[in-house]
Amino acid sequence: MSVWAQEWLERRVIGEATRRNYEGFVRNHLVPHLGNRPLAGLARRDFEKFARDIHGSGAGLAAATVNDRMVMVAAVLEAAVIDKRISDNPARGIRVTRRDAPAVDEDEIPTPAEVDLIAAHIAPQYRLAVYLQSGTGQRPGEALAFSTECRRLGSVRIRWQVSSKAHREGCRTAFVPLKNRVEGEYRDVPAAPFVEQEVDTHLLRWKPVPVVFAGRKKRRQLEVFFAPRLRGKGVMPTVSTYSYHFQKACVSAGLVDVDGKAKYTPGSLRHFFASTALANNVPIHEVSCWLGHRSVNTTTDVYGHLLPSSWDRCRKPCSTP
Fold first, then answer.
1. What's the pLDDT at 174?
2. Using CA atoms, how far apart are residues 45 and 304, in angstroms rounded to an integer?
3. Helices marked H in 183-307 — which ranges?
4. Phi/psi of residue 42, each to 5°?
5. Cα 99–286–175 angle (5° rounding)?
6. Residue 235 near residue 211, CB atoms below 8 Å
7. Nearby residues of 207 by Cβ (< 8 Å), 6 or more positions away
8. Parallel, antiparallel, or unpaired: how do β-strands 219-224 and 155-158 relate?
9. d(Cα 282, Cα 291) in Å, to the nearest integer?
10. d(CA 99, CA 66)
11. Rounded (5°) CA angle 256-260-262
C-alpha cells in the first residue's frame, strides 16, 4: 500500500501546500496503519477501522479532516482499480460522523466579576481581547484579528481569524477565513456599550498597526489592534500566546482549580457570552449566528440546557391524568 500511495502522489499535479498535507498524512497515518498491507489484501472494514482510529482513539483528527483525507485515500485506490491492480475500491465513500458537541458545564462559565478579574490581571495589551470574547462571543483567533474594519455602529463585523503561523517572521498568511467559512464571509454581532468603551480605551494606549497578508485572490491589509510591539516576536500574536497570558491571569487572580491550575480557558468567555444572551431570552438561532456555529444544532447541543424555558418546564408540576 505504501509504495502505491507514494507512486500516486508523485503522479499528481497539485499545489505545493496540498502536496505537503497529503505527504504528511500518508507518512504519519496511512503508512503506519496500512502501509505494509498489499493492495489486494485490503478490505472495506480495514479502511472503516482506519478512519475510526485516526478520528477517535488514534490521532484524534477532526471529522472534517478525516473525511477530506479519506477522499484522497479513495482516489489512491481508484487509481489502482483503473490500473487493474485491484478489482474494486474498498475505500470509496467511507466517512466518519462528527461527534455531537458536549453540553457545557455551568462550572466552566465565569461570572461577570470573574471576567473583570481576568481582564484586570491579564497583560494590558490583551485586556480588550477578554472583553471582545465575553461581550461578542468571538473565538480567541477572531478576537486577536480585531481591526479597524471590524467596528460598526453598535456592532462588530467578524471576518478574519489569526493564522496559527502568524507568529513567524515573514508569514504571508497572518490571517485566514473564519472557521467553517470561506474568504469573504463574515458575521455581525451586536456590541454592548462596555465593549465599545474598551475599544476606545485600548486605542488611547495603542494605535492600530497595518499588517499586509496574502488573501486567496489578492494581497490585503488590516489595521490590527493586537500586533506585538516587542522585537523578535513575529508579526502577530497567536492563540497559544494569548492562552498563555490568559492562564497566567487566572492564576494571578486566584481563579484556579484544586490543583492550582487555571480554572478557565479563553473558550470559557464564549460560554459566558452565549449563556448571558440565552439568559436574557435571545433566541438560540440568533446566538448560533453570532457564535459562528455551522448549525444551530451545535448551539443546542452545547447550550440548550441553559435556556430559561427548559428550566421553567422542569419546575412545572406534571399534569396527572
1. 85
2. 36
3. 193-205, 239-252, 266-279, 284-291, 296-303
4. -95, 135
5. 70
6. yes
7. none
8. unpaired
9. 13
10. 13
11. 40
